[in-house]
C-alpha cells in the first residue's frame, strides 16, 4: 500500500525538526525527500522517514562528522551500533586527552610549573657515535602515533639486512611538531653495517624519505617516562622539565630534542617505562 506523503511542514512537526534542518539534511545527502514537485520544488516525505530524520539529528548532537553519520544511517541497525561505538570510543579518548591538556594548562597559568616538573627525574648519559637508518617527514602531532611505529618498523626491517641494530630506536624533532607545526621529524634505527645500510636505503629511492647518516657521539640529558606519559600533553611537561634542568645548570643545547624508545611498546602497560625524552647537551 502506497504511503501518504507529508508536506515538509507536517513532516518537520512529526520529526520535531525545523524545515531548515530538513533542507540541510537533503543538501548534505543525509535525508532526501521521498518526492520533489517538479513545478513548485516543494518537498514531500514519507512517515517512515521520521526515524531516520531523528537519528541524523541525534548523531549531529554528538559532533559526529557528516561522512560518519552517512555511514551509520546507511547500514543496518546492528552495524550502525558498532560504528557508533567505535566513533564514541575515539571521542572519549580525545576528551580524555583534552581534559589532561586543560589540567596541564591550568598548572602553567597558575604558576605551578615547578611542581609539575618535580615528578620527573633528570639524568645524563653518554652515547657513542652510531650509523643510523633514518626516515624523515613533515608531520603534525595527531599523525605521530601512526607514523612513528610504522616508520620504525620499516627501518627495523631494513636493519635486519644491515647487520642488525646496535641500540634503541629514537625519533628526532628538528622543529616543533604540533597541530599547527609539522616539524620535520626523523625516525632513526642504529645499525651495524654502514655499507649495507647505504645500499638498502639507495634501493628504496629518495622519494621514500629513507636515508643513512652518522649520528655523532652525544651527552644526553633525559627524563624517563611511562607509556601513559608519552601521550600528549604529559610528554610536553617531560620535555619542559628537561629544559628547565638544563637551564638551571647552565648547560648548552648540542642538537635537536628526541624520544628514545627502549622497551617493547606493545607489551608494556600504562605505568611501564618505555621512553626517554632527551636533549643533547654540552
Q: What is the gist of this entry?
A:
With 282 residues, the chain is α+β, with helices and mostly antiparallel strands. Helix content is 42%, strand content 22%.
Distance between the termini: 84 Å
Number of strands: 11
Number of domains: 3
- The chain-level structural class is alpha+beta
For the report, how would you describe the main beta sheet?
8 strands, antiparallel
Give the integer mean of the pLDDT values. 90
The tally of helices reads 9
What is the fourth-level CATH superfamily of the largest domain? Regulatory factor, effector binding domain
Which parts are unreliable, with pLDDT below 50 for 5 consecutive residues or more? none
Keywords, separated by commas or semicolons:
282 residues, 3 domains, 3-stranded antiparallel sheet, Multidrug-efflux Transporter 1 Regulator Bmrr, Chain A, 11 strands, 9 helices
Summarize the structure in words.
Helices cover 42% and strands 22% of the residues. Strands 4-9-11-10-6-7-5-8 form an eight-stranded antiparallel β-sheet. The chain is elongated.
SSE layout:
Blueprint: E1 5-7, H1 8-15, H2 19-27, E2 35-36, E3 43-46, H3 50-61, H4 66-74, H5 77-109, H6 113-117, E4 122-127, E5 130-137, H7 144-159, E6 170-173, E7 185-191, H8 194-204, E8 210-215, E9 218-226, H9 234-248, E10 258-261, E11 273-281
Antiparallel strand pairs: 1-3, 2-3, 4-9, 5-7, 5-8, 6-7, 6-10, 9-11, 10-11
Amino acid at each position: 500500500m502506497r504511503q501518504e506523503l507529508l508536506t515538509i511542514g507536517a513532516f518537520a512537526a512529526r520529526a520535531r525538526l525545523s524545515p531548515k534542518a530538513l533542507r540541510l539534511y537533503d543538501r548534505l545527502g543525509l535525508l532526501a525527500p521521498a518526492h520533489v514537485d517538479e513545478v513548485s520544488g516543494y518537498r514531500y516525505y514519507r512517515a517512515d522517514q521520521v526515524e531516520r530524520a531523528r537519528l541524523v539529528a541525534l548523531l549531529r548532537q554528538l559532533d559526529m562528522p557528516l561522512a560518519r553519520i552517512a555511514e551509520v544511517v546507511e547500514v543496518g541497525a546492528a552495524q550502525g551500533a558498532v560504528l557508533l561505538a567505535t566513533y564514541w570510543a575515539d571521542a572519549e579518548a580525545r576528551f580524555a586527552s583534552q581534559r589532561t591538556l586543560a589540567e596541564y594548562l591550568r598548572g602553567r597559568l597558575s604558576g605551578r610549573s615547578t611542581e609539575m616538573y618535580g615528578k620527573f627525574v633528570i639524568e645524563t648519559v653518554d652515547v657513542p657515535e652510531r650509523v643510523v637508518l633514518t626516515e624523515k617527514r613533515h608531520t603534525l602531532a595527531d599523525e605521530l602515533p601512526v607514523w612513528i611505529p610504522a616508520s620504525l618498523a620499516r627501518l627495523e626491517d631494513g636493519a635486519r639486512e644491515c647487520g642488525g641494530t646496535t641500540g634503541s630506536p629514537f625519533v628526532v624533532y628538528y622543529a616543533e611538531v604540533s597541530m599547527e607545526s609539522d616539524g620535520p621529524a626523523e625516525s632513526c634505527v642504529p645499525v651495524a653495517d654502514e655499507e649495507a645500510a647505504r645500499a638498502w636505503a639507495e634501493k628504496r629511492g629518495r622519494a621514500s624519505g629513507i636515508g643513512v647518516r652518522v649520528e655523532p657521539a652525544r651527552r644526553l640529558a633525559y627524563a624517563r617516562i611511562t607509556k601513559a606519559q608519552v601521550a600528549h600533553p604529559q610528554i610536553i611537561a617531560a620535555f619542559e622539565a628537561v629544559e628547565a634542568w638544563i637551564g638551571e645548570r647552565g648547560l648548552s643545547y648540542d642538537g635537536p630534542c628526541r624520544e628514545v624508545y627502549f622497551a617493547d611498546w606493545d607489551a608494556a602497560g600504562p605505568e611501564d617505562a618505555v621512553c626517554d625524552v632527551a636533549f643533547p647537551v654540552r
